[in-house]
Structures are given as structure tokens and as C-alpha cells.
Amino acid sequence: MDLSLRRLRTLREVAHHGGVNAAAAAMHYSPSAISQQMAALEEEVGSPVLARSGRGVALTHVGRVLLEHAQILLDAEQRACSAVEQARDSAAVELTVGVFCTVAAGLVPRVVKDLAERHPQLQVKTRETDPDEATLQLRHGHLDLAFLIDYPDAAEPWRSGIVITPVGFDALHLAAPSGWFSEQVIDLADLARQDWIMSGIENYYGRALHSACRRAGFDPHIAHQVTEQPTALAMVAAGLGITMMSDLGRSFLPAAGVSTHRLRDPVRRQILVGYDEPARARPAVSIFLDSVLRSASAVGLSRTDSHEPPTKRDPPSQPS
Question: What is the pTM of this model?
Fold first, then answer.
């Protein structure tokens, strides 16, 4: 039996997304190309690996066994690539890095400039990625590294096998329509009756803000549920309510209409970079992390915090 790593990788995506069409969209292939890869894999194995399940597909028993061992082979492939890169002692590679909105605007430009000056042979591509999905994207090899967030108010475990490098703490501040508050420092509890512009609890950011508000004794009234900080700040400037804005998000402040206020009991989040365990030995990864730490210091992110975030623990192992 001669198994193709490319086809095993495709099988993993089909299993994860529950269908050929969704896997094709994630991998930027046509559905027919994915189907051809699966047909070729079944011919290699000598048995069906997928079966129809409603509108999607599910793994057969043979498919589940194959996927379990495929992950071992794909991990070994990544370790082999890292070992070759280390043996070459070369940073002349391209890294794909997952970023989220405020990091993309407030930190990444400085990182890219720093690398261009110090290590021009290292090319960085960024891909906007929801931090909730980033560790899975790392696990599946779609990203080399990803920026992540840890909210002490809503600590969540990282997926097993992800190496975490702390970058710095990013404080959140109240952003309100100009003139709504005269005080420079605000008690979060005093905002219980305000209309909020913020995420729902379906994402990590929303869960963290809800937890902070509950710690202050109230559930926020969400008048406008939005995900991205630029959108929220634009709505604040229009007088539609209040929101939270991070230090890194200051670049999104409208030219007028928004005032910012510190919170008496600070709400902070920790910016981190995660990568899969086999990438630890890659010279390019070390160079990128050094640049991130330099850049974070330059933009004022502190490496320490008086509110020590809880230690994360790996969850029970789950199939990818």
C-alpha cells in the first residue's frame, strides 16, 4: 500500500468539515478535485473511507482507522520539514501567520518592518483568523504560527500539542460617545444601564467581556451585536452606545466622536503566539518570535501584569 500524504491531508479536511464541498472551500480546491483525491485514496486503501451521512459524509470504520494513523504521518512530515530547515540553518522560508483584527493593525506592521530590516530573506504572509479557530488551523498545517488571546476573565484551555509564547498584556478601555462621561476613570459597575456595542458569547472576546461585566455585578444589555472593533467604534462615534477598546485597537479610533476612559478595575488580555510542537526547532520560527517580542515592547505591551492569568491546562485528548 502506497499512501499519498496529500490525500491523507485531504481526508483529514473532509472529516473535519463533514463534507466534500466544505473541505474544498477550506482548501481552495474544486469539489471535483477533492472527490478525485478521495477516490484515489480509496483505490490505494482498497476499501471505502467515506460514506454518505445526510447531506454530508462520514468516515467508515476503515476511514477512522486511516485518519488516526494519518495524523501520525502528517505530524512526522512536519517534524521532518522542521529538521531539514534546522539542518540548513536557513531562514529563507515563507511563514503563514494567523492574525486577528487589532494585532493586524497595531503590531504586525512593525513586525514586518523589523524582519525586512534584519532578515529580508524571511517572508511573512498573514491570514486573518478567528482566535477560536487558530489552534485547529495550526494543527491542520494551514498556519505556521498564530496570534492568540488569553483573557483572565474567561480562561480557556489550549488544544494539546500547541506551544505558547507570551507576547504582552493589552489593556481594554471604555470607548464612549464624546461628552457622555466627564470622569477619566470609570467603574465598570456604573455602566450596567448603558447600551453596549459588543460581541455575543459565541466567541472568546464576547465571553471575556460578559465575564468581566458579570464580575462587576451585571449582564450587559447588548443593543448592537458586532464582532469587529472598527465597526463597534464607528457605531460609538454615531452615539449608539459604548464598547471596549484595546490598546492595540487605538488605530481604529475615528477622527472625532469617541472618548476613551480607563477602568478602575482594569480588564486586560494577554497576547500570545502559538505554533505546533514540531515547529519549535525551525530557525525561521525563532526569528519571527524574537521580532514579535521586540515589536511588542516598542508599541508598549508589557510583559508582566499585576493580575496573573490562570495557568491553562490541556483538555482531554480529542480526535482532530
Answer: 0.69
